[in-house]
Amino acid sequence: MQGKVLIVTGALGALGKVVAETARSRGARIAGIDHAPSQISATPESIEISGVDLSDATQAKTAIEAAAKHFGRLDALINIAGGFAFEIVGDGDFTTWQRMYALNVLTALNASRAALPHLAVSKAGRIVNIGAMGALQAGSGMGPYAASKAGVHRLTEALASEWKGKVTVNAVLPSIIDTKANRADMPKADFSKWVTPQELAEVILFLASDAASGVTSALIPVGGRV
Fold first, then answer.
1. Of 17, 111, 139, 189, which alpha carbon lies 20 to 30 A from 26's?
2. pLDDT in tens, 34-51
3. Which residues contact 115 (CB under 8 A, 6 or more apart)?
């Protein structure tokens, strides 16, 4: 990671913070993009671009261009921004499906489209998306979320094919991530079976590294301990 320039979307969330902090500790320079507000000042090693709705293509492009201008180049895009909803299909609201598509598919699509021209001129351009193990086979109540994450999987494969030889594009498919929010929502669950943000960050940063130059179009399940 030494000297790499990484954009991390959803950088102020539970997973985004761990990915950004881990990459920074290994010598990467980080542009964090998030919808949430930030009061941190920019430095030569780090910038946070807040208040960005990545489901809007114009806002996404503006944020990506600001990051590229700040550092002079981009090497990797980590698409973590997203959302979750649990809703039964028959009793649900159509707007939930729209919201999941916007939060999970459009954020990754818009950020990727804006970043790709910059990544293509890097010696090791990388995109890492966040899919979901639950999108491989959706259970009850998982329809809107799983459908949107399945869209991320297909987006990953399409981009990997279209940019082969220029930018690698992969996705990690976590099981349930061990966060405070998930523990509060599922207090009776066995947390030891969940994947930790640090475990997930290690896989993400491997895919963003030089060592993963031969890996593209991969959908990698992470977690799911028995």
1. 111
2. 999 987 888 989 999 999
3. 7, 64, 68, 74, 77, 127
Rg (CA), the chain: 17
As a whole number of angstroms, the distance between CA 11 and CA 200 comes to: 14
Domain 5-222, what fold?
A: Rossmann fold (3.40.50)
Q: What predicted TM-score, i.e. pTM, was given to this entire model?
A: 0.95
| Tokens found for residue 156 | 């990953």
Tokens 């060592």 correspond to 211
CB-based contact 111:60 (threshold 8 Å): yes
Residue spans of alpha helices (H) in the chain: 14-25, 57-71, 94-100, 107-119, 143-162, 180-185, 197-207
Q: How far is Cα 104 from Cα 147, in angstroms, rounded to an integer? A: 10
**Are 67 and 77 within 8 A, CB to CB?**
no
The terminus-to-terminus CA distance of the chain in angstroms comes to 32
Give the pair of three-digit tokens for residue 36: 């949430």
Report angle CA 172, 122, 9 to the nearest 5 degrees. Answer: 40
Write out the H or E segment, with its range, that includes residue 75. Answer: none
- Residues in the chain with pLDDT < 70? 225-226
